[in-house]
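Good morning,

Attaching, inline, the backbone tokens for the sequence recovery test we're adding to the shared suite. The designed sequence is right after.
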């Protein structure tokens, strides 16, 4: 048996049209061609592939077993070409091929999912790279031009070429496990008592925040680079620390964690800033993403994580 030839994109699309429109005549009308041209194109495709795709012995044209298998391939090829053409049109109009977004680990994941679902619908041809970093790590990636857009947490000293806008605040709560000694305090927990117990603190490797402490009260602390590790250690009773409300709302509801009422308050507002390099202007997709982040409602209901 000879090797199959190389079918053309037009042949594959005619093959798909015959199946989707229910026959040669309907496909001809849909494609604005004569029925004889459609029939000839399918015959040539079968000749190219050296296999029968359609069963013409019945009143209605049906797929052979080989045709069923190859129809999926034809659809995949057609879709990939359509995608390539759409991307080429977008690139020609100035749309970015790819967006790199870096967000602070405190950014509520439920809001991020909703945001990126909308982004996918709005810009289906734009590839996305997503990073999560702590403290100065977000700003560092934007400064180094590794990401076009960032959502940074606690403000750090940034050069003038970084554009920064306040997007909103995330509620942070100091918590511990119910069997931790600090959980015995019914009212305000004295700062002296906090200092006696291990504090779990989020840190990062960015030089922008090297040597800086944010909300560190304990005389003993463990520095953790991963928020989920901190979450697990808090639930295990190894120490106390602050966590974003959205991430621990279920733990508070079930009693796996309890809130601590500190002298400075039972919660604090952690700011989130949208940042990007002013000397590297955002394209249409980047501008849309920035506007959506600024418009987000960060006041989350309990259990929203």
């Amino acid at each position: 048996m000879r090797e199959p030839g190389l079918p053309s994109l037009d042949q594959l699309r005619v093959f798909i049209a015959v199946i989707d429109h229910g026959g040669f005549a309907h496909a001809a009308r849909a494609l604005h061609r004569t029925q004889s041209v459609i029939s000839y194109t399918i015959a040539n495709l079968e000749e190219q592939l050296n296999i029968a795709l359609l069963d013409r012995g019945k009143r209605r044209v049906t797929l052979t077993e080989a045709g069923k298998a190859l129809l999926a391939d034809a659809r995949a090829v057609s879709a990939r070409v359509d995608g390539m053409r759409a991307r080429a049109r977008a690139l020609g109009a100035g749309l970015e091929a790819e967006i790199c977004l870096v967000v602070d680990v405190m950014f509520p994941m439920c809001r991020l999912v909703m945001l990126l679902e909308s982004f996918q619908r709005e810009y289906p041809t734009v590839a996305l790279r997503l990073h999560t970093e702590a403290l100065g790590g977000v700003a560092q990636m934007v400064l180094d031009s590794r990401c076009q857009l960032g959502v940074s947490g606690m403000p750090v000293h940034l050069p003038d070429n970084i554009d920064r806008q306040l997007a909103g605040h995330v509620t942070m709560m100091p918590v511990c496990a119910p069997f931790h000694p600090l959980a015995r305090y019914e009212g305000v927990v004295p700062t002296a008592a906090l200092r006696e117990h291990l504090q779990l603190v989020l840190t990062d490797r960015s030089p922008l925040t090297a040597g800086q402490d944010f909300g560190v009260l304990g005389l003993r602390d463990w520095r953790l680079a991963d928020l989920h590790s901190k979450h697990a250690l808090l639930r295990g009773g190894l120490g106390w620390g602050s966590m974003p409300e959205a991430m621990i709302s279920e733990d508070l509801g079930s009693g796996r964690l309890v809130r601590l009422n500190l002298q400075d308050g039972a919660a604090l507002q952690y700011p989130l800033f949208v940042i990007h390099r002013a000397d590297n202007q955002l394209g249409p997709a980047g501008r849309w993403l920035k506007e959506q982040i600024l418009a987000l409602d960060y006041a989350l209901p309990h259990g929203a994580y």
